[in-house]
Amino acid sequence: MYNPNDIAIPNGNYFALPFTPEEAALVLLSVPWDVTTSYRPGAAKGPEAILEASPQLDLYDFDNPGGWRKGIGTLEIDPSIRSTSRKLREEAEKVIIHLEAGGAPEEEYAARKLARINQASRQLNESIYKESLRHLQAGKRVGVVGGDHSVPFGLIRAVAEQEEEIGILQIDAHADLRKAYEGFEHSHASIMYNALEQIGGVRRLTAVALRDLSEEEVPRIADDRRITPFFNHKLAENRFAGVTWGEQCRRIIETLPAKVYVSFDIDGLTPENCPHTGTPVPGGITFDEAVYLLASIPRSGRQIVGFDLCEVVPGGESEWDANVGARVLYKLCNLILL
Ligand SMILES: [Mn+2]
Predict the structure, then answer these.
(1) Ligand 1: centre distance to CA 188 (Å)
(2) Which of 158, 169, 178, 238 could form a disulfide with 243 if both were Cys (CB 3.0 to 4.6 A apart)?
(3) Rounded mean pLDDT of 76-103?
(4) In whole angstroms, what is the distance from residue 25 CA to residue 23 CA?
(5) Cα gap 147→82, rounded to integer Å
(6) Distance 305 CA to ligand 1 centre (A)
(7) 199 alpha carbon – ligand 1 mean position (Å)
(8) Distance of alpha carbon 103 from the chain centroid
(9) CA diameter of the chain
């Protein structure tokens, strides 16, 4: 008999919970993929590290006591995702070196590699889409554990189709609105561009903690009425002027429709919560602020209909990044199961 108060024994499932995916109301889909991370790779190791760190959590959740009893299932990791990612990463690095040396993406040397990478990214998106849709159609919720921030595209597409109309709450240091960054159509820096361009059901994008933007992304945000940015410096200014975080969360949440997909890039948090992530940026929101913001979604009467957690990178000896990641993941699980 499973006893939630016993010492958790690692069993290959997130949080060492005893459910099969079939029994579970929520399934977690791990995507160990980071082909296009430009600065510092390692997000492909995120799911395994979070999985390993997760049994140390105690299961009581203050927003949803006993919520885990509805079942949080762990889908088996497809090993071909990891091996394809590793192979293509080497190709992507050659492309990046070529571009950094002043080469053009159109030159045959780079173009051939880019075509291969883009094709494989489309295949990954397709398989995540199909897998997600299968579980959604069985009446379950689905969460993706990345991987870099390109990996949830297929889940967002499947959720948007099922729910017809969704808003995305993105927590992220970056806007991820670049078109084909470095020639990679499905780069980690393009996920929201692709979601808005290619997924009709995405009606709103509300992005929180943005603080590292390219020149082209600023007008992209200003010109698209679906996007509401909550820039990090503005959140900080308001905080310094005495606006409570509760009030700021109310303003954030009211921009979203009834059904909310949460896309959580761990680098949206302050860097001490994710010291090894691919592109860390000073500033950001604290863990407590993030939890309060997420919990404000169901409190407002809205429903979380899907989520991803991306860019968690384990750092050598330290399991801290994975520990924080596991706690963000568990909070998302409990809030979606409300
Ligand atoms: Mn991101």
Answers:
(1) 6
(2) 238
(3) 93
(4) 7
(5) 10
(6) 19
(7) 18
(8) 31
(9) 62
CA–centroid distance, residue 173 to ligand 1 (Å): 7
Which tens digit of pLDDT belongs to each residue from 182-224?
889 999 999 999 999 999 999 999 999 999 999 999 999 999 9
d(CA 309, ligand 1 centre) in Å: 10
190 C-alpha vs ligand 1 centroid, how far in Å?
8
Q: Which CATH class is domain 14-336?
A: alpha beta
Distance 155 CA to ligand 1 centre (A): 15
Candidates 224, 269, 298; CA nearest to 67 is 298
Q: How far is the CA of 43 from the centre of ligand 1 (A)?
A: 12
**Residue 312 Cα to ligand 1 middle (Å):** 11
Q: How far apart are CA 271 and CA 268, in angstroms?
A: 8
Rounded to the nearest whole angstrom, what is the distance from the C-alpha of residue 231 to the centroid of ligand 1? Answer: 14
Which chain residues have CB less than 5 Å from ligand 1, an ion? 149, 172, 174, 176, 265
> From edge to edge, which strands make up the β-sheet containing 259-265?
72-74, 26-31, 141-146, 303-310, 259-265, 166-171, 202-210, 227-231
What is the share, in percent, of the chain residues with pLDDT greater than 90?
Answer: 91
The per-residue pLDDT for 334 is: 98
**Alpha carbon of 114 to ligand 1 centroid (Å):** 21
Q: What is the 3-state secondary structure of 161-211?
A: HHHCCEEEEEECCCCCCCCCHHHCCCCCCCHHHHHHHHCCCEEEEEEEEEC
Distance 18 CA to ligand 1 centre (A): 32
User: Confidence class of residue 2 from pLDDT cuts 50, 70 and 90?
Assistant: confident
Question: Domain ranges in the chain?
Answer: 14-336
Angle at 260 between CA 127 and CA 276, to 5 degrees: 65
Q: Report which secondary-structure segment, H or E, holds 111.
A: helix 108-137
